[in-house]
Amino acid sequence: MKNVWAFDLGASNGRLMVSQFDGNYLHLDEIHRFPNHPVQLTGHYYWDILRIYQEMKNGMVKSIQKGFRTIESLSIDTWGVDFGLISASGELLGNPYSYRDPHTNESLKEIVKTIPKEELFTRTGVEPAAINTICQLNAIKENNPGLLERAETLLLTPNLLSYLFSGMNVNEYTISTTTSLYNFQQRNWDFSIMEALNFPKHLMANIVETGTIIGSTLDSINQEVGTSPVKVVAGAGHDTACALAALPIKVENAAFMSCGTWILMGVQVSEPVVSKEALQWGFTNEGTADGEYRLLKNTMGLWLIQKCRAAWLNEGISITYEEEGQLIRNSKPFQSLIDPDDPEFFNPENMPKKIREYCIKKVQQPPETKGEFLRCILESLSLKYRWVIERLELLIGKSIEVIHMGGGGIQNELLCQFTANATNRRVVAGPIEASAIGNSLTQWIALGEIKDLKEGREIVEQSFQVRTYEPQNQADWHDAYGRFIKLLH
């Protein structure tokens, strides 16, 4: 069977998966996994891009050692908005900033003095937010202008890594739409926005369609890892676009959820929805692997639990996933609720402490035990997803009957069940490795082995298991939602 390398890099870990296709079924093997966290240095948060690059090469070597010697192609997907800058001589200019870096805190306020939020949203389709590429560029222009002056090319994270492997500097469609610099009507960079903000217009590498074969691995890479040249595909660069591509969606009235550190929840649309309500409610429009758009809301995901685990680990307490589930089941339902998207929870030093403070401020009994903290988080997340679903229905003028959940977060079975309960909708969870599968699908399509995404999704459905969750305990969840809505207001 033929093999492709799918590099699926998230904001908490990265992995290399080998995908095989026998003409009927897809097979996926995890070869290498490594942690990935921003590094705090001199008051900033950076991505250790050279370590990520080295770990990717380590994965290549492992893959060959395990017998996957003939590789047709590789593709890389990552989180959105972040980027690296390349000099005129082709060198990387420092480690890329992380979207969690505070240097963008004031950028949006400055940008909207020149381009009002409403105009920015209607031109780019993207919710104006401090983490976006446009704000990061503005922060660099204001605080580190020398870096921007030396830069010749901006490459978004998956395309930066593709450049390190191939030497080809292009940006792919789906990841480009996350920047607040992509004009969906022109289907190109919005150079008038860049001119208004005094950004160098030459900076943005050309945009290519999803599935473009941009070149092959460099000779130096081939010699280092011991492989023949491998085609480098600009597959769906954004991990959520990959996840959506892999979900076995059959009906039009279905929503998707890509579940991990963040949870991105939305529907596929042919054209962006840029109404005043979409802006007011914090929705955004990003590209899909087949050239359409994902109308979605970027909501907090399992980051809250990850930060609680980290705080408890600092106290010398480690809890397994199985123990977490039991602790939650043994805790009283709906004792305390939070708005998981409150800015206070974005990156606190101590998440449990911040949750307690929030509950006290909102005149609720704060969590005391670890099970109560975990239950508070999962119930609050699920209730927020109901809020998102209801507003999605208003924006598209259609009812949503089923929710497809994919990604590593669906291994948390209580998250899936609570989402079904809170939204009163059937949840279809799977596949777990949705982003990596979608990554590989775009490669198999580019290689001509699979016709299109429709055929690809049919192959995914017969190749990987999914699990269905039906709503339970509706009266209790409905009452809790009433309390939750009061918190939001």
TrEMBL record:
- InterPro entries this protein is in? ATPase_NBD, FGGY_C, FGGY_N, Rhamnulokinase
UniProt keyword list: ATP-binding, Disulfide bond, Kinase, Nucleotide-binding, Rhamnose metabolism, Transferase
> According to its record, what are the GO cellular component terms?
cytosol
Which residue numbers delimit the Carbohydrate kinase FGGY N-terminal domain?
Answer: 6-244
Q: Which GO terms describe its biological process?
A: glycerol metabolic process; rhamnose catabolic process
**Gene Ontology MF annotations:** ATP binding; glycerol kinase activity; rhamnulokinase activity
Q: Which residues form the Carbohydrate kinase FGGY C-terminal domain?
A: 256-446
Statement: the UniProt record of this protein carries the keyword Nucleotide-binding: yes
Q: Which PANTHER family match?
A: L-RHAMNULOKINASE, SUGAR KINASE
Instruction: Family membership, please give it.
Output: Belongs to the FGGY kinase family.
Protein name, per record: Rhamnulokinase
Which species? Neobacillus mesonae
Organism lineage: Bacteria, Bacillati, Bacillota, Bacilli, Bacillales
